[in-house]
Amino acid sequence: MATMFPNSGVQDPFAGVDFSQLEKSLRRPRTLMDFLLNSATTLATLAALLPLFSVLFMLIWRGGKRLSLAVFTQLPPAPLQQGGGFGNAVVGTLVMVGMAMLMSVPMGLLTAIYLSQTNQSKVAETVRFAAKVLTGFPSILAGVFAYGAVVLATGRFSAFAGGVALAVLMLPTIVLTSEDSIRMVPSKMKEASIGMGATQAQTVWMVLLPTAIPGILTGVMLAVARAAGETAPLIFTALFSNYWLFGHGRVDLNQPTASLAVLIYNFAGVPFKNQVELAWAAALVLVLLVLVANLIGQSLSSKQVQRA
Question: pTM to 2 decimals?
Answer without folding.
Answer: 0.81
